[in-house]
Amino acid sequence: MLTATARPARRSAVPDTARVPVNRQITITLASPSMTLPSAHPVSATDWAQDWYLLVIGAVAFGAATAGVVHRRRHRPGDTGHIAGMGIAYTAMLTAFYVDNGPHLPLWDRLPALTFWFLPSVIAAPVIARAIIRASRSRLSRGPS
Predict the structure, then answer these.
(1) 12, 29, 95, 116: which has the fewest C-beta neighbours closer than 10 Å?
(2) Burial of 131 (C-beta count, 10 Å sphere; 0-12/13-18/19+)
(3) pLDDT one-digit tens code per residue, 86-140
(4) b/e sequence 9-43, b meaning 16+ C-beta within 10 Å
(5) pTM of the prediction?
(6) Are 68 and 33 in contact (CB under 8 A)?
(7) d(CA 122, CA 111)
(8) Helix 113-142 × helix 80-101 angle, to 10°
């Protein structure tokens, strides 16, 4: 590790023309949660009484991802809003997957139904909190920009 920090930084092996522009990265990042809402609507409409929650979870994922991207695009200070928004969106998509498919997965079919609803959040909440705390500490150590 010390040798890696002692060496001068090398130029990236990827040419500048092959790199994806930041605006395109944001568009790609938002595309996944954006597609959950339009795809959740017809899926939940086919059997509304049983699958209405997919539309709600899709709306939560879309709203959280949009909030995270807007925070980043407006160049607000800190990364808290971006980390929280994207983390919540990912957690919501995982929750929708496990609630819908968990009873049909091997080993997962032995778990109680409430596990599919709460396990992704129980695991993700400390991870998101740790990421926010680390981002805040690194921002404080860099000083005001």
Answers:
(1) 12
(2) middle
(3) 999 999 999 999 998 888 989 888 999 899 999 999 999 999 999 999 988 877 6
(4) eeeeeeeeeeeeeeeeeeeebbeebbebbeebeee
(5) 0.72
(6) no
(7) 15
(8) 160
85: its two tokens: 């928004």
Q: pLDDT by residue (tens digit) across 12-46?
A: 555 555 555 556 655 666 666 667 677 777 777 78
Which two three-digit tokens encode residue 18? 């092959």
Both tokens assigned to 78:
């800190």
Structure tokens at 56: 């709600």
Take residue 39 and report the two structure tokens written for it. 């795809």
- Look up tokens 């090398």; give the residue: 10
Tell me how far apart the alpha carbons of residues 110 and 117 are, in angstroms, rounded to a whole number.
Answer: 14
How is residue 53 written in tokens? 């929650």
